[in-house]
Each structure stands twice: as structure tokens, then as C-alpha cells.
């Protein structure tokens, strides 16, 4: 039980962090205003979080 919770926490954090970094570094060369870069990175993080939740809820129903 504890191992499953830890693995979900670790693997569940990968997509939001990956999307945050891709959104951040992907928008830096295109947009010069720092507030837009932060907004795009925040949106990317939320998108990665939602995708991670969708994937892990599907997997938990299969197991």
C-alpha cells in the first residue's frame, strides 16, 4: 500500500514538471515579456497535472 502511494506520487509528478519546463523554456525564445512566459509555464503545469490525473485514474481502474 505504501509503495503504491509513493510510486504514484513520484511518477505523478513527472508530467507536470516536464510540461512546466517545456512550457517555460519553449516560450522564452518566442516571447520577450516575462509575465507571459510565467503564464505559459503555469498553464503548461496545469495541463500536465490534468493529464497526469487522467492517466493515473484510468490506470487505477484497470488494476
Question: Would you give an account of this structure?
Answer:
With 63 residues, the chain is mainly alpha-helical. It has three helices and no strands. α2 (14-27) packs antiparallel against α3 (34-62). The chain starts with a helix and ends with a helix. The relative contact order is 0.16. The mean pLDDT is 85.
Mean pLDDT: 85
Coarse shape:
elongated
The total count of helices amounts to: 3
Order of helices and strands: HHH
Bin the strand percentage: under 5%
Unreliable stretches (pLDDT < 50, length at least 5) are none
Q: Quick one: how many beta strands? A: 0
Q: Give me the secondary-structure category.
A: mainly alpha
Biggest β-sheet: count, sense, barrel? none
Distance between the termini: 13 Å
Q: Taking Cα atoms only, what radius of gyration do you get, to the nearest Å?
A: 14 Å
Q: Give the helix level as a range of percent.
A: over 70%
Give a quick rundown of the structure:
The protein is mainly alpha-helical and 63 residues long. Helices cover 86% and strands 0% of the residues.
List key phrases describing it.
3 helices, 0% strand, mainly alpha
Topology:
Layout lengths: L1 H11 L1 H14 L6 H29 L1
Helix pairs in contact: 2-3
Amino acid at each position: 500500500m505504501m509503495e503504491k502511494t509513493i510510486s504514484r506520487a513520484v511518477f505523478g509528478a513527472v508530467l507536470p514538471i516536464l510540461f512546466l519546463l517545456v512550457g517555460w523554456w519553449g516560450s522564452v525564445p518566442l516571447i520577450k515579456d516575462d509575465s507571459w512566459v510565467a503564464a505559459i509555464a503555469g498553464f503548461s503545469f496545469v495541463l500536465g497535472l490534468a493529464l497526469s490525473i487522467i492517466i493515473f485514474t484510468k490506470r487505477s481502474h484497470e488494476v
